Amino acid sequence: MSEVANSRPLLRATGVTKIFPGTVALDHVDFTLQPAEVHALLGENGAGKSTLIKCLTGAYRRDDGDILLNGEPVDPRGTLDAQSYGIGTVYQEVNLLPNLSVAENLFLGHQPTRFGMISGREMTRRARETLSQYGLDIDPARSLGDFSVAVQQVIAIARAVNLSGKVLILDEPTASLDSGEVKMLFDIIRSLRDRGIGIIFISHFLDQVFEISDRVTVLRNGRLIGTEDAANIDRVQLVNMMLGRELEHETRETGKTDLAPGAPWLEFDDFGKKGRIAPFDLKIRPGEVVGMAGLLGSGRTETAETLFGAVTHDSGTARSRGEEIELRSPRDAVAAGFGFCPEDRKIDGIIADLSVRENIILALQARIGWARPVPRRRQAEMAEDFIRRLDIRTSDAEKPVGLLSGGNQQKVLLARWLATNPKFLILDEPTRGIDVGAHAEIIHLIEELCAEGMSLLVISSELDELVAYSHRVIVVRDRHHVAELVGADITTDNMVDAIASAHNGSAT
Amino acid sequence: MSGTARFLRRIAPQLITLAFVLALISVMFPGFFNISIANGRLYGSPIDILNRGAPVALLAIGMTLVIATRGIDLSVGAVMAICGAVSAWGITQGYDLGSTLLMAVVAGLVCGLWNGILVSFLGIQPIVATLILMVAGRGIAQLITEGAILTFNDPNLIFFGSGSLFTLPMPVVIWIVTGLLITWIVRRTALGMLIESVGINLRASTLAGINSRVLLIAVYVTSGFCAALAGIIAAADIRGADANNAGLWLELDAILAVVIGGTSLLGGRFSLIASLIGAMIIQAVNTGILLSGFPPEFNLVIKAAIILIILVVQSPALRTGMAFFRKPRQTDVAKKETVTQ
Ligand SMILES: Nc1ncnc2c1ncn2[C@@H]1O[C@H](COP(=O)(O)OP(=O)(O)OP(=O)(O)O)[C@@H](O)[C@H]1O
Ligand SMILES: [Mg+2]
């Protein structure tokens, strides 16, 4: 829709169109960014948000449309070129260089120089200074690949903020951040806005959208649905604009009252790995959902990787139905009926060039062995089935999964493990980057599967979400399991307390 | 049906290139396509290309699988020399043909196993891991032949170089059968997809429960096996094992065949048939230069130039460049669509 043309827009895009084989990703979309505003870009998975910003920066060649920056037509040819116009971008998939140091990643292309030489010491000092604004106390000389996705995300943001003189674009920057870091990021965004910079912010967290944005633009199926002032619209209206329908069961405030009855079938005793996670005991009942809360780097992902054999444990034993089982590799874990959706879908999850179908049947095929291929017809059926059940937006099952939108890739990963019919599924940030509609669907699906007897370990930074579906929540801090909350004790406040308290965990 | 169409589309650039090279040669040498039959065996330049191209074709089969896992096998030329030496040694020591062939093949498998272990268990980069055997392999072959060219006269072994079956030269039969057999195995089972998966994203594949280590070893072992067959053919062809020259530089031709075949050196999607066509393209170029009577000094330069042209024509940059010209039309279509809605 049209909006009142106040002052001169900072960035104005009209009629932006992008066509991929089989998909019209953007269909004559208009978008206007004012100076000194935070403008949220919203829409379902696959709506075209990432594609729009890639067309703005020239990372994709648009098929049609014009871009004006301060009234001048511009045609950036790529991320670097866009930077020279003062447009800094953090894409959804962090694209830094893992082999280079943190400092080099921060300053690549505009390193501080001294007598014409790159000054390493100066660079490290400036890097440390920059990162401390984000509350990150790490050694900038270490290579980026050593750090978690979240830390990398912060570094990517810091880099883009440094570079953006006029426009800052953030594609789901908060997906892997915890609340403290989000707060810090928002402070920085506000101060940039006050300096007159226009910020485009993509997120599926509506609370964050309402907290930070001045205006919102909603896309659906590659079309512009509308642009509104954030103050004039409420959550329900916004969701309706995004989905084109009402959301049925969005949230649930209370935790699961009762623990799933029955004896534990999985028992981990004194299970741990030096330097990653201190030995812990864990018992899992059939149909039980165990949540796991903690800060970044607290040992949640490490727990998951150790349980799944991705990192081989060096202490303790695992028993399934009383019998000791070997868990030295992911293969062992898969054979024992485990599944694991990792946190970093790009590096640990998707096989980008394989098709959606092949990605979905991959774990199943690996389990039954190379000699017995899943029949082609069956593969196609399974793919179609999951595409429908999880509402995966793709032109067809043969599309390489790397070409799907971020949230849809996440759904493909979930499908891969559901296809194996696991008895114990470990989900590390399963709803990251997933839109509100699909979010509810996935939680609904999880509950259904648990009712059928599957057990689940879910790691999430969204405490509300943990409250909604967990029977039990384990709190992790400093690589130790420090507290366990059960039943009515599962509240966000209790979790926050346990995460924050310096010594002993609170409720048990 | 659509599978066949997709397959044809995949190998079309290679087929067109091959046809183009052959057409070029036949323009210069009108008698090029003449094929005659004598003593129950086909003769003629096209048959000669199939025959001379056998070693590179065989190496390209193993190389394709290795490259699909994002690896490379530089040792295949040296492994050819080892296996040729083993077969010459075996037959001159009086072993029967079966045992001799078995020993040569086992030598190839062991070489592949060695490479595979270095790559998958010790995590050494493939280019470095296989370089070791590339350098050491000729030394090992020399040890077996005791420094001389070990010649033999056993007609049974010679048959693998110059004999014929169903009117086709034996080497041709061997590479075609091996190529089809391995294609059948990797595409009928899930191996092909698992290999591609490991090549595209090793970490994610391992986390999905794929036994990547065993898979990596398997592709290097296959490569060793193919090199052994190539080594036997090469030795049988010259009736002797030349540790210094057998298979010399053929690893590079094999890699080139894979690249011409459109398999990315970054791993992932592969096509054995396309690599085999690639091997034939290389051999056709070789034969064409030979026929043309250019002084041999020019051979390598001309070959390099021709291959450069082939690669440029197939390069993605050129393809996107061509797509660029088609773009305006695409947008028109989109506009029409939106108008109707
Ligand atoms: N390179 C590409 N090739 C083909 N199709 C693509 C490509 N990139 C994106 N698409 C398609 O374009 C559509 C829009 O994708 P886009 O990544 O913009 O979605 P998004 O709104 O960012 O979603 P998400 O919230 O999941 O990140 C999707 O249907 C996707 O499959
Ligand atoms: Mg996106």
Strand order of the largest sheet of chain A: 6-9-10-3-11-12
- Individual helix count of chain A: 17
What hetero molecules are in the model?
adenosine-5'-triphosphate, magnesium ion
The best one-word shape of chain B is globular
Helix content percent band of chain B: over 70%
Cα end-to-end separation of chain B:
34 Å
State which percent range the strand residues of chain A make up. Answer: 15-25%
Average pLDDT confidence of chain B is 85
**Portion in strands of chain B:** under 5%
The total tally of domains of chain B equals: 1
Poorly predicted tracts of residues of chain A:
1-5, 503-508
SSE string of chain B: HEEHHHHHEHEEHHHHEHHHH
InterPro entries (chain B): ABC_transp_permease
Keywords (chain B): Cell membrane, Membrane, Transmembrane, Transmembrane helix
Main location (chain B): membrane
Transmembrane segments (chain B): 12-37, 49-67, 101-124, 131-152, 158-186, 214-236, 248-266, 273-294, 300-318
Structure commentary:
The complex is a heterodimer of chains A (508) and B (341). Chain A starts with 10 loop residues before the first strand and ends in an 8-residue tail after the last helix. In chain A, the strands form five sheets. Chain A has a six-stranded mixed β-sheet, with helices on both faces. Helices cover 34% and strands 24% of the residues of chain A. Chain A folds into two domains: 11-246, P-loop containing nucleotide triphosphate hydrolases (Rossmann fold); 251-507, P-loop containing nucleotide triphosphate hydrolases (Rossmann fold). In chain A, a hairpin with a 2-residue loop joins β21 (472-477) and β22. In chain A, α12 packs across α13 (376-389). By secondary structure, chain A is an alpha/beta fold. Mean pLDDT of chain B is 85; it is low at 323-341. By secondary structure, chain B is mostly helical. Chain B has one domain (52-294): ABC transporter involved in vitamin B12 uptake, BtuC (Orthogonal Bundle). In chain B, the strands form three sheets. A two-stranded antiparallel sheet of chain B has the order 1-2. Chain B has a two-stranded antiparallel ribbon with strand order 3-6. In chain B, α3 (54-68) runs parallel beside α8 (170-188) and α12 (250-260) crosses α13. The longest helix of chain B has 27 residues, at 2-28. Chain B is globular and about 55 Å long. The chains are: A alpha/beta (508), B mainly alpha (341). At the A-B interface, β2, α10, α11 and α12 of A face α9, α10 and α15 of B. The structure holds adenosine-5'-triphosphate and magnesium ion (MG). Magnesium ion (MG) binds next to α1 of chain A. Magnesium ion binds next to α1 of chain A. Chain A: It holds the Pfam family ABC_tran. Chain A: Belongs to the ABC transporter superfamily. Chain A: GO terms for molecular function: ATP binding; ATP hydrolysis activity. Chain A: One of its GO terms (cellular component) is plasma membrane.
